[in-house]
């Protein structure tokens, strides 16, 4: 009797130990997969904001087999904020009476109010948004999804990438962890979250239409490598989140291509591989640290129009063709020559 009882107890303990081992193994595999899903650099940027690598969303598909966006949307909306700015703009006033008597035009300062979106990227209140959302603002405030309002401090801005970093006081804020924008594939589902037309916490879905889009915004924005999506994005979405179906931040919604000013099917987001690096530098240094190769490369978009044959030839090359060098080129000094094809930097393709 006692022997049977002992065997039963031992059996229960063995089952419990095996279950624990299986659970720990499963957790370890999930954690490894999460860490592996982030490229090395993006993982470093996430570390700058002490993001938890164990934030994982599951149940990506419904029982019927199609993608279920509800968990990604529910988790992400709490990490997207409504940004309100106040700035002083100079308005030219022409009074017919003054004009008649030769006083000419008058310039009157006016308060201008602007709106946009932002993404909380750390539990202690760091927020990424677009530089153009807060440009020239003398006052910036953010409203969370739970309607709490905070005054935001501008930590730093980078007009070249159109990224700005804000900070609000507090702790334990909901945030969106970084994903791997480099791993995105054309045709992959994504969600755009923001505040179009001041309609807060709006979620739209679409697919990645293209990657590495250039020459989309004016020349003032020097660094352009956009993710093109067909998720609906409208005025007010700027600075908002582009997330994958796992609820990870893969881009910052920035621009649309439209002849009317409203969405027509072409929206563009800055990859988090760029935005995260800029935000991490702004936090640590106050300015963005940039390396310079000093090379000139072919403009594919230009060649597609004016030299389609060469554009087609270049499209088959896996890498970057060195067309020429700047006056003081570190790449030339290191032995790179015209016509060389650069396939990786620091062993990263």
- Subunit arrangement of the protein: single chain
Structural class: alpha+beta
In percent, how much strand structure appears in the residues? 25-35%
Fold-level CATH name of the domain at 80-167: Thrombin, subunit H
| Unreliable runs | 1-36
Q: For the report, how would you describe the main beta sheet? A: 7 strands, antiparallel
Major sheet: order of its strands? 5-4-1-2-3-7-6
Give helix % range.
Answer: 25-40%
CATH superfamily (homologous) name of the domain at 80-167: Trypsin-like serine proteases
Architecture per CATH nomenclature, i.e. the level-2 architecture of the domain at 80-167: Beta Barrel
The coarse silhouette is: globular
| Tally of individual helices | 9
The ordered string of helix (H) and strand (E) elements is: HHHEHEEHEEEEEEEEEEHEHHEEHE
CATH class division of the domain at 80-167:
Mainly Beta
- Output mean pLDDT: 83
Draw up the topology in text.
Elements: H1 2-37, H2 40-48, H3 70-77, E1 80-93, H4 96-100, E2 106-120, E3 126-130, H5 131-134, E4 139-143, E5 149-151, E6 153-158, E7 163-167, E8 189-194, E9 202-213, E10 226-229, E11 241-244, E12 249-256, E13 267-271, H6 272-284, E14 295-296, H7 300-306, H8 308-315, E15 320-321, E16 324-325, H9 330-333, E17 341-342
Helix pairs in contact: 2-6, 7-8
Protein architecture, described:
The chain has 349 residues and is an alpha+beta fold. Among the domains are: 80-167, Thrombin, subunit H (Beta Barrel); 295-342, no CATH class. Helix content is 27%, strand content 29%. The chain contains nine helices and 17 strands. The strands form four sheets. Strands 5-4-1-2-3-7-6 form a seven-stranded antiparallel β-sheet. β6 and β7 (163-167) form a beta hairpin. The longest helix has 36 residues, at 2-37. The chain is globular and about 65 Å long. The chain starts with a helix and ends in a 7-residue tail after the last strand. 32% of the residues are buried. Mean pLDDT is 83; it is low at 1-36.
